[in-house]
């Protein structure tokens, strides 16, 4: 087991944390070297297998990130922006690969993460799935091929516990559409429509967010012009696709030079 990459999962009790832990335990290419939870959490000090309702696996949940990172080759992090920024600094000190699936990051957060990437490999993506990253590439190409007479609208749907909107994936798609048109998303983004908003501005990229039930993730990119529409769609039905992508990124980063990467790099797109 020691000849495979040791991986730490942050936020182990969360929905994605549990999925990631199961994926690492099931993999023959890596092993679970640590699980992190916040200070005072009930799981701290427990074997992660027992905490998740199964058999012990020999890994104790800890709240000491620095110690856990020092013993690992990669960290997979789907937590919250403030925690992710702190983890980026610690992972850089440990020179361990940091895979970030956290969404809702501000420009300042990203700047701090990019600074940490000067010392370690960081792979950051709003979505880790192969299908979504193909959709991102297609969105850029279609946006480049069509003029602004085609309005671009991005509609996303997620479960009722998601705390940020638009989703990180929706913003990835918006950035891709903006890049295809040669503009900055910040200059053309249109979201949160309510009330008497006036007519839609030509060239804007609109966002709509749906929250309900247990929806894993659905994203539509709509190109709408007079008389026709083009719709690109991705539906996620199992969070395991994100866990698989994150593991792929963690292993891919093992022999790379320090720097900021994304799933396009990992997948060779």
Describe the structure.
With 269 residues, the chain is an alpha/beta fold. It folds into 2 domains: 5-124 and 239-267, NAD(P)-binding Rossmann-like Domain (Rossmann fold), CATH 3.40.50.720; 130-236, Dihydrodipicolinate Reductase, domain 2, CATH 3.30.360.10. The protein is built from 10 helices and 12 strands. The chain starts with a strand and ends with a helix. The mean pLDDT is 95.
Strand-helix topology:
Blueprint: E1 5-9, H1 15-26, E2 30-36, H2 48-51, E3 61-62, H3 65-70, E4 74-77, H4 81-94, E5 97-100, H5 107-116, E6 121-124, H6 130-145, E7 151-158, H7 168-181, H8 185-188, E8 189-191, E9 205-211, E10 217-225, E11 228-236, H9 240-252, E12 259-261, H10 263-267
Parallel strand pairs: 1-2, 1-4, 2-3, 4-5, 5-6, 6-12, 7-9, 8-9
Antiparallel strand pairs: 7-10, 10-11
Helix pairs in contact: 1-9, 4-5, 6-7
Determine Rg (CA atoms, Å): 20 Å
CATH topology description of the largest domain = Rossmann fold
Shape: elongated
Low-confidence stretches: none
In helices, the fraction of residues equals 25-40%
Number of structural domains: 2
Q: Sheet with the most strands?
A: 7 strands, parallel
Q: Roughly what fraction of the amino acids lie in strands?
A: 15-25%
Count the beta strands.
Answer: 12
CATH superfamily of the largest domain: NAD(P)-binding Rossmann-like Domain
The neighbouring-strand order within the major sheet is: 3-2-1-4-5-6-12
Mean pLDDT: 95
């Amino acid at each position: 087991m020691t000849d495979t990459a040791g991986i730490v999962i942050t936020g182990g009790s969360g929905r994605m944390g549990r999925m990631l832990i199961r994926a690492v335990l099931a993999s023959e290419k890596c092993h679970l070297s640590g699980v992190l939870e916040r200070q005072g959490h009930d799981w701290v000090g427990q074997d992660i297998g027992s905490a998740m309702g199964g058999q012990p696996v020999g890994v104790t949940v800890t709240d000491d990130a620095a110690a856990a990172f020092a013993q690992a080759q990669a960290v997979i992090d789907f937590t919250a922006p403030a925690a992710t920024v702190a983890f980026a600094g610690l992972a850089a000190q440990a020179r361990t690969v940091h895979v970030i699936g956290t969404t809702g990051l501000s420009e300042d957060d990203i700047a701090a993460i990019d600074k940490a990437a000067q010392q370690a490999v960081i792979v950051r993506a709003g979505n880790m799935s192969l299908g979504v990253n193909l959709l991102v590439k297609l969105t850029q190409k279609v946006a480049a091929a069509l003029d602004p007479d085609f309005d671009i609208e991005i509609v996303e749907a997620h479960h009722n516990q998601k705390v940020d909107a638009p989703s990180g994936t929706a913003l990835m798609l918006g950035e891709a559409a903006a890049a295809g048109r040669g503009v900055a998303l910040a200059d053309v983004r249109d979201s949160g429509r309510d009330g008497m908003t006036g007519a839609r501005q030509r060239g804007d990229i609109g966002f709509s967010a749906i929250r309900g039930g247990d929806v894993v993730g659905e994203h539509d990119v709509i190109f709408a012009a007079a008389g026709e529409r083009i719709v690109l769609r991705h539906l996620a039905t199992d969070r395991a696709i994100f866990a698989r992508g994150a593991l792929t990124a963690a292993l891919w980063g093992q022999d790379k030079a320090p720097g900021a990467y994304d799933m396009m790099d990992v997948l060779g797109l």
